[in-house]
């Protein structure tokens, strides 16, 4: 008795019941577990719910014959070992059965001594089949794993090649940038030290100035490289705190004004933002000064740089540095944050390391912020940085309500002869600025709304003489709000003045198409603002 015999379960199918019972009893005596059926339908039903190692089936049976039984059984259990039993003269049919999956056949009548070796061979063949199938599955799994590993290795190799090329390019560029100021320092120093190269006092002063400028440039370059290395390695210590943006703007204005005056570029900061950001104070100033320096250096004569900020969605504060420079192409924008890439602007003969924007990007991201740029060749560029906002206290005179920000500029019992002005604006600082401008006028009462829907509601309720409309409003924007007002017969006659920071030519054209009575860009020019309101009030009076 073998271990395989003790574990073997045999399904026997034979329509000759006497032969079926005798065979089941004989095989049980040799420690096989047997189950017999006189027809194929019952046998297949049993096979679907039970596990068998072998099946002995008669070849010639009514209904399902042995060939059909082998095909059906192996469809249910592909690992089942099948043996066909056949009488004299049916060997060809037995061979056919083997072609559809039977492992062997037995000629009736047979002795138990002749069938036992056949069963043993069938069990061994079955076990070999199952072992081979398992090995093939493992081989396929290992092949898939190997392919995945090869892909990972190829990706890693590609990334390593890219990193090595980037490192080589970085080192090559750094060598070039370091050698350039060193060339001036060593060259002019050799001239001053040479006994054969005579120089007068003015030349000595000029050469010394060149050495000083080159040394200063070299120091800046070294500091920026060290800062970049610290940020990339995570070794730079940052002190994240709540910072008042207005204070930073004042400090940046003080630092940048001399450079702007020298380059004949005017720089305008948004007056009062009342916004706070979570950032490192020193590094935030470093980021803004770098962006401002670039905006000034690469601007045009008598160009402008505007610095604005607003509260975006999810309490994110967006700071924009908008210049009227030559702009950047799409190809330049793809590599703008690469170190030592000056985007071809070295032809301007402007001092620069080409590493500043790369450092700025790393600093911003280290402070959990983000940076981006919009640019148009011939028009200018807008760099923006975004940082998490911090809670602020509303300035004196403001009341925060669930529907709108309201700044009281007049007593409720104003005479009916007073004109009314509705300002739709979501920025508290801008609302306060306009409120202060309107407060100087005794003939105008100011109403406010913090979004387009509330603006429409206020306009229908109060029917103001003039409406001031911001463009970038939460919900529906100013252009869509103006369309709703125009389509309503109750408010269609009211002149609407756009007051917005969207100052590009395309924005102006869009505002003109939208049908605004006038289009005022921020920062507000007070004379232009007053003229537009007076003109709109006169227009409104003529319509009454």
Description of the molecule:
The protein is 51% helix and 19% strand. The protein contains 16 helices and 19 strands. The chain has helices spanning 3-7, 17-29, 40-49, 66-76, 91-99, 112-193, 201-233, 245-262, 281-297, 330-334, 356-366, 428-439, 452-462, 478-487, 505-514, 526-543, and strands at residues 9-13, 33-37, 54-58, 81-86, 104-107, 240-244, 266-269, 276-280, 304-311, 316-323, 370-376, 380-390, 398-400, 405-407, 419-424, 444-449, 466-469, 496-500, 518-521. The strands form four sheets. Strands 6, 7, 8, 9, 10, 11 and 12 form a seven-stranded mixed beta sheet that branches. The chain has a five-stranded parallel beta sheet with strand order 2-1-3-4-5, sandwiched between helices. A five-stranded parallel beta sheet has the order 16-15-17-18-19, with helices on both faces. Helix 2 (17-29) links the parallel strand 1 (9-13) and strand 2 (33-37).
């Amino acid at each position: 008795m073998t271990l395989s015999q003790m574990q073997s379960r045999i399904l026997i199918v034979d329509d000759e019941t006497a032969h079926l019972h005798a065979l089941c009893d004989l095989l049980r005596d040799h420690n096989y577990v047997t189950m017999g059926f006189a027809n194929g339908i019952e046998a297949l039903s049993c096979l679907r719910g039970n596990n068998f190692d072998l099946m002995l089936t008669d070849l010639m049976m009514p209904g399902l014959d042995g060939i059909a039984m082998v095909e059906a059984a192996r469809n249910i259990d592909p690992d089942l070992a099948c043996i066909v039993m056949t009488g004299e003269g049916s060997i060809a049919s037995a061979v056919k059965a083997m072609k559809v999956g039977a492992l062997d056949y037995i000629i009736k009548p047979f002795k138990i001594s002749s069938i036992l070796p056949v069963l043993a061979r069938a069990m061994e063949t079955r076990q070999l089949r199952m072992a081979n199938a398992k090995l093939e599955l493992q081989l396929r799994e290992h092949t898939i794993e190997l392919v995945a590993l090869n892909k990972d290795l190829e990706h890693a190799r590609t990334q390593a090649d890219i990193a090595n090329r980037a490192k080589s390019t970085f080192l090559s560029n750094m060598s070039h940038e370091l050698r350039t100021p060193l060339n001036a320092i060593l060259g002019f120093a050799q001239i001053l030290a040479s006994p054969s190269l005579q120089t007068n006092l003015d030349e000595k002063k000029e050469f010394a100035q060149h050495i000083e400028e080159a040394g200063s440039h070299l120091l800046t370059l070294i500091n920026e490289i060290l800062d970049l290395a610290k940020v990339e390695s995570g070794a730079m210590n940052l002190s994240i705190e709540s910072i008042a943006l207005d204070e930073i703007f004042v400090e940046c204005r003080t630092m940048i004004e001399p450079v702007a005056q020298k380059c004949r570029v005017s720089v305008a900061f948004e007056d009062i933002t009342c916004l706070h950001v979570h950032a490192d104070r020193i590094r935030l100033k470093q980021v803004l000064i770098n962006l401002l320096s670039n905006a000034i250096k690469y601007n045009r004569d008598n160009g402008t740089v505007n610095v604005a900020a607003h509260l975006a969605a999810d309490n994110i504060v967006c700071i924009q540095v908008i210049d009227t420079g030559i702009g950047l192409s799409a190809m330049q924008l793809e590599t703008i944050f690469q170190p030592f890439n000056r985007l071809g602007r070295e032809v301007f003969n402007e001092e620069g390391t080409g590493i500043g924007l790369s450092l700025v990007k790393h600093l911003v991201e280290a402070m959990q912020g983000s940076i981006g740029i919009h640019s148009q060749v011939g028009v200018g560029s807008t760099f923006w940085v975004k940082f998490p906002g911090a809670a602020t206290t509303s300035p004196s005179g403001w009341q925060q309500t669930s529907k709108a920000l309201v700044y009281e500029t007049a007593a409720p019992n104003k005479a009916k002869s007073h004109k009314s002005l509705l300002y739709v604006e979501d920025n508290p600082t801008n609302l306060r600025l306009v409120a202060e401008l309107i407060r100087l006028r005794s003939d105008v009462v100011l109403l406010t709304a913090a979004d387009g829907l509330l603006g429409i509601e206020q306009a229908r309720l109060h029917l103001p003489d003039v409406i001031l409309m911001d463009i970038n409003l939460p919900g529906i924007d100013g252009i869509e709000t103006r369309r709703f007002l125009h389509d309503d017969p109750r408010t269609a006659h009211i002149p609407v003045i756009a007051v917005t920071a969207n100052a590009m030519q395309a924005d102006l054209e869009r505002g003109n198409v939208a049908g605004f009575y006038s289009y005022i860009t921020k920062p507000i020019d007070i004379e232009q603002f007053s003229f537009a309101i007076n003109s709109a009030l006169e227009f409104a009076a003529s319509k009454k």
